[in-house]
Amino acid sequence: MTTAVVAGVEVDTRHWIGGRRVASADTFEDVSPLDGSVIAHVSRGGQAEVDAAVAAAKEAFAAWSRTPAAERAAILHRVADGVEARIEDLAQVETRDNGSLLRSHRRGVMPRVATNFRYFADHLLELAHPDFETRGHRNHVSWDPAGVTAVITPWNAPLMLATWRIGPALAAGNTVVAKPPEWAPLTASLLADIAHEAGLPAGVLNVVQGLGTEAGAPLVAHPDVRRISFTGSVPTAQRIGESAARNVTPVSFELGGKSPLLVLDDADLDLAVHLAVEQFDNSGQVCLAAVRILVQEGIYAEFRERFLARAAAITQGDSRDEASDMGPLVGRTHLDRVDGFVKRAVADGATVVLGGEPHHELNNATGGFYYRPTVFEGVDRSMEITCQEVFGPVLTLQTFATEEDGVAMANDTEYGLAATLVTGDRERAERVSAQLNAGTVWVNCFFVRDLSAPFGGNGRSGIGREGGTWSFDFYCDVKNSVFAPKGWV
Known about the structure:
The protein folds into two domains: 3-255 and 461-480, Aldehyde Dehydrogenase, Chain A, domain 1; 260-443, Aldehyde Dehydrogenase, Chain A, domain 2 (3-Layer(aba) Sandwich). Helices cover 42% and strands 22% of the residues. The chain has helices at residues 47-66, 69-85, 87-98, 102-126, 158-171, 186-197, 212-221, 234-247, 269-278, 297-312, 332-347, 360-366, 384-387, 403-410, 426-435, 468-475, and strands at residues 3-6, 9-12, 15-17, 20-22, 27-31, 38-43, 132-134, 137-145, 148-152, 175-179, 205-207, 225-231, 251-254, 260-263, 292-296, 351-354, 374-377, 394-400, 415-416, 418-422, 440-443, 458-459, 462-463, 476-483. The strands form seven sheets. It has a seven-stranded mixed beta sheet with strand order 16-17-18-15-14-20-21, with helices on both faces. A six-stranded mixed beta sheet has the order 11-10-9-12-13-23, sandwiched between helices. Strand 1 (3-6) and strand 2 (9-12) form a beta hairpin. The protein starts with a strand and ends in a 6-residue tail after the last strand.
């Protein structure tokens, strides 16, 4: 079969290459985390499909890169229109595919997909650097399209994270080969339909489905790929980096996190508890989640009591139910991985104060992959649970004595994607946030994102920054032309 009906929506399960659907001889099963059922058999691409997609993108690049900026922007706005017209379809399919809350997809995630296209289409038309003079010579900065771009994204927010890269790459004049996650590939196929209907020329956007080792690996190693944007794990990024190095292909990596939530003793406790509970969003499958909760000693007892009560009240259930606060993990393999972290933490001497196991009753009833919200105490820096990314609903509680101690604990990690700070003193907020090692610091808030802001991580959390002009700096070859004051005919 070449299509699947998912949540009442027909989805083509073939690749999208060069403006047409292409099937593979083999397929892979796409399993819904809501109930463990197989919802689609998806074309399983490999070297041949990657070669065809890169060739199509390379051929389309010549015309697309020369398309006037205003025309490219207009097409991307039509893509956004198409996304907005199908928000319900996209939300329903992605909820069934990756298990995230339907209400989140409807209200936030899928509208952001459209915004990803609109913002970069508009920014393209404003992209400029003022000319400047050097000894009478005029310098002019321009952003030239780089070429074929590989976009590889994860399953926790597959369409939003893909379009966060596809949008600026296309706006810049690049062509794209996207490899969606094998655990949640379906909305990428719907995007291909939407883009085609919006008038995006054939070959400008290509979608190759498949496993990372079979489709992702040849894509990032392809000599005709001129940019690689990857969101995922550190080990996978290391393998991609090795392939990219052989072709000297620039990379942008958004990787893991082990972010802190630093609660100082002058904090608004209602706010601090609210922000702490937010870290269970998307069942903890969020790279930005502040999973290490660090609380100053004087307020710890009250914070702990209120936080655990709120966390225990989280409603787990079917992600399509408006009453559910937390859905399942993405699949059996990931549930086992998260449970392995929890069991090893207990063996290391950590104390479970909430949860600590799969939601057996719910899993038995539904066939899904639910894990209870879990909180540990009695942890220290020597334990895996405080150092390695779990990517599940697992948080740790620790205390610190002084502000300096808290900053030191917050920064005691190989990662540096984000940090969240809660304090009631403005001067203290400025002082402490300046000391935190993170690409993004939220003060008395969480997950506030502006597409014009730089986004990326420090240390093992990634390479580079995207957002606003930073995205065009990556997806383009930035050029400076110097014009002499004399010599004109």
